[in-house]
Write a structure and sequence with these properties.
This protein folds into two domains: about 5-310, Alpha/Beta hydrolase fold, catalytic domain (Rossmann fold, 3-Layer(aba) Sandwich); about 335-535, Galactose-binding domain-like (Jelly Rolls), CATH 2.60.120. The protein contains 13 helices and 22 strands. The chain has helices at about 65, 75-80, 115, 125-135, 150-155, 155-160, 180-185, 195-200, 205, 230-235, 255-265, 280-285, 285-300, and strands spanning about 5-15, 20-25, 35-40, 85-90, 140-150, 165-170, 240-245, 270-275, 310-315, 325-330, 335-345, 350, 360-365, 370-375, 380-395, 400-410, 415, 430-435, 470-480, 485-495, 515-520, 530-535. It starts with a strand and ends with a strand.
């Protein structure tokens, strides 16, 4: 085991004279090593411990989530220093040990997600930190970014700036749009995870007491906002990338991770997919080996094996513990065909052709739901995002909140569950959201399988009571195998996951506009249908 030299509260100078505080772990043996860096708002000194939700949960007994040897959501120094890397974890400006003004947008989460992504306000500081590290006498001139969640999505904007010493980046489950992905999915406000009260009482902020290591300069000049749409800043990225997409991280990172891979301009990019528990997967041997191949190639130039790997490592889930892994040339998977299944209100099923007769079905927006089933006649994979087109009306209101839940049932009619950090061992296939007044789409950025709403905040376009209107609801990516005789259920309700009782719920949607009953129209001129990428095996 390599002896590790640890530098706590190492100052990293910014262009305005402010110093950020960093923890640096490096091999004690003198030499020049590549750097793996991460910026965090949770505190560089927030090491894994019992106060964290993921503590003790691991797929392997040596996981750092059990040993508590690494910063929350960052790479483990005990492993990487032993492989000849330096790990630098930086407290962002205004967080934990770094002085200065926190970057916050007008409507933001406590760590400043909208400011970080849409406004790019961490990017300049990250650029300066990368360039500082790249010229130190202990660095070989190569720097990478890597980390989970906020340590991941903070990478997108700085990657587009192309710092000379940044050779590659690794956003491991990183959203690309705080409003669309997390705070207002579909236009429906999230009322727990993204609220200040949740962060104040949660484990993250308890470990992130703001105690600056030194004062900020009097003439502090924090990075200014530079707003960009998601497609525009993704297109600017040309660096080699290893991106992780998690099929079960809906309402946080799943949409952004998969779209980020699809939209960046990088010639060399890889997508590592999974459908398991977020942190356990990051620290397991398989994922760590993939990262090592990536970093050894682009930071050390010593191993080009990753260049021979297809772009996508695809994990397809069958149930909680059974899954298959294979390589694909690209994502979206070419063999997955966009298939439209039409809703039929007559008998609550999905059909492969539009029913001729117009029908309708009504559910109570407070306590009811409508469901439509499809039984697979052959083994079939659902891989990627899907979309649900609905013709709807509400009799007693001028708006409505629609929640979509995709569920899997086995041949005996028992529901099949999956794993997720959001609700461990109680996850479903996929979810989707839409507030009807925000049904207008961004036609430039939308695709048939991935409709993107033009806006998710503001008054939107209300409807008249009883008015029948169409809407296209984005349903987040899934990677699930259905065996012959198993079924997919598309469930539509006025509450998240149909209001089912859940053992734990980190994400809540309680600020709703629903009133009375909702009606869905199918058949004839009402082409309500579910469009899904299906790969028949």
């Amino acid at each position: 085991m390599t002896e590790i030299r640890f530098l706590k509260d190492a100052p990293i100078p910014m262009r305005d004279g402010l110093n950020l505080a960093a923890n640096i772990h490096m091999p004690a043996e003198p030499g020049k090593y590549p750097v793996i860096m991460a910026f965090t708002a949770f505190g560089k000194d927030a090491y894994w411990g019992k106060e964290f939700n993921g503590w003790g949960r691991a797929y392997e007994p040596w996981s750092p989530t059990i040993t508590g040897t690494c910063t929350f959501e960052a790479n483990d120094p005990d492993f990487w220093c032993n492989c000849g890397y330096i790990i630098i974890t930086v407290d962002a400006r205004g967080f934990n040990r770094s002085p200065g003004t926190r970057a916050l947008a007008e409507i933001d989460g406590s760590p400043g997600e909208q400011a970080i992504i849409a406004e790019g306000r961490w990017a300049r500081d990250e650029y300066d930190a990368i360039e500082w590290a790249g010229v130190q006498d202990w660095c070989n001139g190569s720097v990478a970014l890597s980390g989970v969640s906020i340590l991941g999505f903070s990478q997108w904007r700085v990657a587009g700036l192309n710092p000379p010493h940044l050779k590659c980046f690794n956003p491991w489950e990183g959203m690309i749009n705080f409003y669309q992905d997390c705070k207002f999915p579909g236009g429906i406000p999230e009322t727990k995870f993204t609220t200040p009260e949740s962060w104040t009482k949660g484990s993250y902020i308890r470990t992130n007491r703001f105690e600056a290591a030194w004062p900020a300069p009097e003439n502090e000049d924090p990075p200014a906002p530079d707003f960009m749409e998601e497609d525009d800043f993704l297109e600017k990225i040309t660096l080699p990338a290893l991106i992780c997409g998690n099929w079960t991280d809906h309402g946080i990172h799943a949409r952004g991770s998969f779209k980020g891979f699809r939209k960046i301009s990088s010639e060399h990019k890889w997508l590592f997919t999974h459908g398991r528990y977020k942190w356990s997967e990051f620290y397991c041997s398989e994922a760590r080996t993939m990262r090592k191949l990536f970093f050894d190639c682009y930071l050390k130039g010593m191993d080009e094996r990753i260049l021979s790997l297809p772009k996508v490592q695809l994990m397809v889930m069958e149930n909680m513990t059974e899954y298959s892994v294979r390589f694909e040339d690209d994502y979206p998977v070419k063999s997955a065909v966009a298939t439209r299944l039409y809703l039929d209100a007559a008998d609550g099923v999905l059909k492969d052709s539009l029913p001729a007769e117009e029908r309708s079905v009504t559910y109570d927006s407070e306590s009811g739901l409508s469901a439509f089933d499809w039984v697979f006649e052959e083994d079939t994979e659902l891989i990627g995002p899907s979309a649900l087109k609905l013709w709807v009306s509400t009799a007693e209101a001028d708006d409505m909140d629609i929640f979509v839940t995709l569920r899997k049932f086995d041949k005996n009619g028992a529901e099949v569950r999956f794993d997720s950090v959001l609700i461990p061992e109680y996850w479903i296939v996929a979810v989707g959201w839409m507030r009807l007044s925000h049904r207008e789409l961004n036609t430039k950025a939308s695709t048939p399988l991935e409709p993107l709403q033009k806006h998710v905040i503001g008054p939107g376009e209300k409807v008249s009571p009883g008015e029948i209107v169409p809407c296209e609801i984005p349903v987040w990516p899934a990677g699930v195998l259905f065996r012959k005789g198993e079924s997919l259920r598309v469930e539509i309700a006025g509450r998240y996951r149909g209001g089912e009782p859940l053992p734990r719920q980190d994400k809540c949607y309680d600020d709703l506009v629903n009133k009375g009953k909702h009606t869905i129209y199918t058949g004839g001129k009402y082409d309500s249908g579910f469009l899904a990428p299906l790969n028949r095996r």
